[in-house]
Each structure stands twice: as C-alpha cells, then as structure tokens.
C-alpha cells in the first residue's frame, strides 16, 4: 500500500539538531505523532536525559523547542506492508537540502537508525552538515538495552552542545 508522510517537520527558529527517522510506524500514523508507538523509547530517552516530562504533545513540543531539536523523516512517501523499515519500498525522499536552506542554523543531523542514514548518504552525501547515526528507539530493535541507547543519545546531544 502507498503512504505519504502524514506530518510536517517539527522545526523551530532556534533548532540546531535535526533528528531524522525513516518513516512513521503505522501506530505513529494512527496516533498522529512522531515516535508515538507506546513502546517506542524515543520520548522516554529524551525525558530521562533532559529531566523533563514528555508525555503530552505540549510537553514534547516544549522539550524540542527548549533544547533546539527538530524532528522529521528522510522518506516523504513509500510503499509498505507493515511498520518494519525493511518493508519500505519505492521510497521518495524529503527535500532535506531545502529544509536546511530554510533553517541555516541547523548544524547537525542525527539519524534514528541505519536505514535513514543510508538513504541520506545515498542521496545527500554532498551536503556539508555534521551527521551521526543513533540506535533506533523502536521496540523492534530490542537487541540493544535501553541504557545503551540512552548513552548514545547523550553522547550525541553533548557533541551538539545541547546537553
């Protein structure tokens, strides 16, 4: 089945780090939010690292704005049969260069998984922006323990200067 990305990017005038996933899970689409699957660890990681709640959409938006983090996905549209990144086919990418031109203060990109990083490198490797690949916060990536994932995010945020 063909899907178009259901959300706009979340970016603020002060955003310096843009976190890019692949494409929202079916559950995130149903819940109308980035990383909205109840077992996805993304918001828990950010909440733990920044010591602020990230339960409601208002709290999540405030956290992102305060700590200068933006969210988007690398894929604009695709075909899929389920939520697994391995089942994303016929992918058309979002216009990352246009977003970076509109928000020139974004100096770092972080990818929530290897597929997002690979797609970016394949198409946008010539862009001059600092990039880092983070572990996927997805419940499907259960081989890495929560604290190990959280430590990778901590190192990224420290490198960017937001933690």
Query: What is the name of the CATH topology?
Result: Uracil-DNA Glycosylase, subunit E
Overall domain count: 1
Order of helices and strands: EEHHHEEEHEHEH
Report the CATH architecture: 3-Layer(aba) Sandwich
Judged by helices, strands and strand pairing, the structural class is alpha/beta
Global morphology: globular
**CATH class identity:** Alpha Beta
Q: State the strand order across the main sheet.
A: 3-2-6-7
Q: Helicity, in percent?
A: 25-40%
Please give the largest β-sheet.
Answer: 4 strands, parallel
| Beta-strand proportion | 15-25%
Give me the CATH superfamily. Uracil-DNA glycosylase-like domain
In total, the number of strands is 7
How confident is the prediction overall: mean pLDDT?
96
Low-confidence stretches: none
SS summary, helix count: 6
Whole-angstrom Rg: 15 Å
How would you portray this structure in words?
- This protein is of the alpha/beta class and 163 residues long.
- It has one domain: Uracil-DNA glycosylase-like domain (Uracil-DNA Glycosylase, subunit E).
- Helix content is 36%, strand content 20%.
- The protein has 6 helices and 7 strands.
- The protein has helices at 26-31, 42-50, 57-66, 96-102, 114-124, 146-160, and strands at residues 2-4, 17-21, 69-73, 75-79, 89-93, 108-112, 130-134.
- It has a 4-stranded parallel β-sheet with strand order 3-2-6-7. It has a 3-stranded antiparallel β-sheet with strand order 1-4-5, with no helix packed on it.
- β6 (108-112), α5 and β7 (130-134) form a beta-alpha-beta unit.
- It is globular, with a radius of gyration of 15 Å.
- The model has no long low-confidence stretch (mean pLDDT 96).
């Amino acid at each position: 089945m063909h899907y178009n990305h259901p959300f706009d990017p979340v970016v603020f005038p002060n955003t310096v780090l843009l976190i890019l996933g692949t494409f929202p899970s079916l559950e995130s689409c149903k819940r109308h939010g980035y990383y909205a699957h109840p077992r996805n660890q993304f918001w828990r990681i950010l909440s733990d690292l920044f010591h602020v709640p990230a339960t409601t959409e208002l709290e999540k938006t405030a956290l992102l704005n305060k700590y200068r983090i933006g969210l988007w996905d690398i894929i604009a549209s695709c075909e899929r049969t389920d939520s697994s990144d391995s089942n994303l086919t016929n992918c058309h990418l979002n216009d990352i260069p246009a977003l970076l031109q509109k928000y020139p203060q974004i100096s770092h990109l972080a990818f929530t998984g290897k597929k997002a990083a690979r797609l970016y490198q394949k198409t946008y490797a010539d862009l001059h922006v600092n990039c880092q690949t983070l572990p996927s916060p997805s419940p499907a990536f259960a081989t890495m323990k929560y604290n190990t994932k959280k430590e990778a995010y901590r190192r990224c945020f420290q490198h960017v200067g937001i933690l």
